[in-house]
């Protein structure tokens, strides 16, 4: 519970703005190399990403000081990047180190360099005020590289506003309708759920007891307990951390073996790791992985789970793209909320407060920028 | 570190002004369209000087309340063409034409150590940087050099705020800044290659630091500077520009720049930064009677010594110390593009 200074707004913006003063994942660690720069736009800021010879990841604005040609199309020369157009070179701090055809360097020749932290198999960048960039505020995704967990994931290039993806993940009753062949089941929309929140986080908890395991979970149970049949207790505990990371603690255990009370030994547990990076108001990079804490050494299971979730998330992607198109095609229609949107609405409230603190409106500018 | 090099014009109102030090005014502006001014930014003002609209730049000493209050520190220039005199005449309530914050001197992130060097009024460009570095908990040193304590703006405030991190050098107390040892100390330190220096001050101080920096082979890009674009090796004198292609000669008064004088005479010349950085206004020198006071940072030292070309926006011809007894003004003969 928080005591309010002023009444909160409803924050029902359809195209949600994104905070700048936050860590966002720019790329998987393996995407950023010392061989060639990677172009990626994070929270509206085009970046050129690469690695120095000491392995440190670097993020510079992807526009040359001179005539704004994209540096990401340039060459890496040692620890410097060379503009592809007229050959200006910059070091990892964004300072120009060489100008062709003159003996000096214009003292104002510099491109912005952004704070970077590498953590949990991702390269995180901060495109807001660099003086507020505190590495301790990188969202917790420790399952990604913990020895107690195994798994892998992918990136979805989603043609929609990032907040639509957060909505999607904060309410999993959609599984019943969107993912009926894999993880959906009727009990999802019937089960009660709890919502709680802090200043930077929201948790939605749902337990379904004594139900049949849907196909995805039956397979996982049999990976751990060969030949398993029977009823299960199923859980989904959604953890949101601002601005756009959602970890979902999911699993099933043999019914009545005490999982809701804390004994998960008779079950299988996974964490669906999601972190969404707004690219523009209408496009997002959606980084996900599925991590499990059983049969850690089986690459087969890692691959099967990645492929399985890939299929499930493909269904979401289609829905999200269609939703964004419908939103854009119906500009005068509003959003309405259902009881199932409580988690998503708390997320909006937190994001709205972050935006207010930066003096930004909750609704992104109308143009597709 | 958003590099904002785009200029847009707006109106600003003078909220407050008072004296900071001898000959230095503090002027607080409240702009129409407030934007936070990051450390290192300046604003341009369009001033009416003797019937001409002239642009003058002033560093933002402090940006408060998201840029709703911008503080400037303006020194009255000894033989002012009017810019600083005009600024000193401003009163609370006056309206000025100004740009939003322009960034050409951004403070980097991630260096192991920062050394800020201010000569005289150059401190205005470094106050906000020092505050930011202190807030970041960075390792930094602030070096202040001036002619006398009376004219050094913000001296007490800075010593109070930054304590041991400040080193003060005052000419009339005979505690002079020794550039060689300052730079030598950096070169000998473990963090040498990851130390960034930010300097703003008289051209002679900055030239000396640049030379020492090069001698010690410290990384060139780590030496950052802002040029206030007006100080030279010799005091400004009247001089003459001969333009054989146009069969004309133009006289440049000591209170005008060569670029301004040529434009006022209707000569079409190309320029961009007007502060001796970009080299766009560079022209060939055919002959010199006297010396060239280059005042730019575009040409290298060896290039300057050849007298082959100069930057119209800042360079001057001068008799300098030597021929100052001569009655004839110095002259340059230029080849225009
Ligand atoms: C980015 C930037 C930031 C600045 N920040 C500040 C600041 O914070 N505070 C501040 O006080 N000033 C600052 N300046 C300097 C300021 O813009 C003016 O140049 C200064 O106020 C003098 O203007 P003026 O019209 O009064 O004098 P000017 O007529 O420009 O004369 C100033 C001095 O330069 C000599 N001079 C005259 N004409 C020329 C010429 N053509 N070329 C070279 N020298 C000449 C004069 O003899 C005199 O000593 C800054 C300049 C720049 C470019
Ligand atoms: S645009 Fe990069 S060097 Fe010209
Ligand atoms: S106009 Fe840029 S150096 Fe003269
Ligand atoms: Fe889904």
Automatic annotation (TrEMBL), chain A:
Domain of life assignment: Bacteria
Pfam families associated with the record: Rieske, VanA_C
Cross-referenced Gene3D superfamilies: Naphthalene 1,2-dioxygenase Alpha Subunit, Chain A, domain 1, Rieske [2Fe-2S] iron-sulphur domain
Top EC category: oxidoreductase
GO biological process assignments: methylation
GO MF annotation terms: 2 iron, 2 sulfur cluster binding; metal ion binding; methyltransferase activity; vanillate monooxygenase activity
Rieske domain location: 23-125
UniProt keyword Repeat, yes or no: no
Keywords: 2Fe-2S, Iron, Iron-sulfur, Metal-binding, Methyltransferase, Monooxygenase, Oxidoreductase, Transferase
S-adenosyl-L-methionine keyword on record: no
EC number from the UniProt entry: 1.14.13.82
PANTHER family according to UniProt: 3-KETOSTEROID-9-ALPHA-MONOOXYGENASE, OXYGENASE COMPONENT, IRON-SULFUR DOMAIN CONTAINING PROTEIN
Name of the protein described by the UniProt record: Vanillate O-demethylase monooxygenase subunit
Source species: Nocardioides albus
From TrEMBL, chain B:
Main enzyme class: oxidoreductase
Key word Iron-sulfur present: yes
InterPro entries: 2Fe-2S_ferredoxin-like_sf, 2Fe-2S_ferredoxin-type, 2Fe2S_fd_BS, Beta-grasp_dom_sf, Cbr1-like_FAD-bd_dom, FAD-bd_FR_type, FNR_nucleotide-bd, MRET
GO molecular function, one term: vanillate monooxygenase activity
Keyword check for Metal-binding: yes
Source superkingdom: Bacteria
Record-annotated 2Fe-2S ferredoxin-type domain positions: 237-337
Entry EC no(s): 1.14.13.82
Sorted UniProt keywords: 2Fe-2S, Iron, Iron-sulfur, Metal-binding, Methyltransferase, Oxidoreductase, Transferase
Cofactor section: FAD
Domain FAD-binding FR-type, residue spans: 7-108
Record GO biological process: methylation
Protein name according to UniProt: Vanillate O-demethylase ferredoxin subunit
Organism lineage: Bacteria, Bacillati, Actinomycetota, Actinomycetes, Propionibacteriales
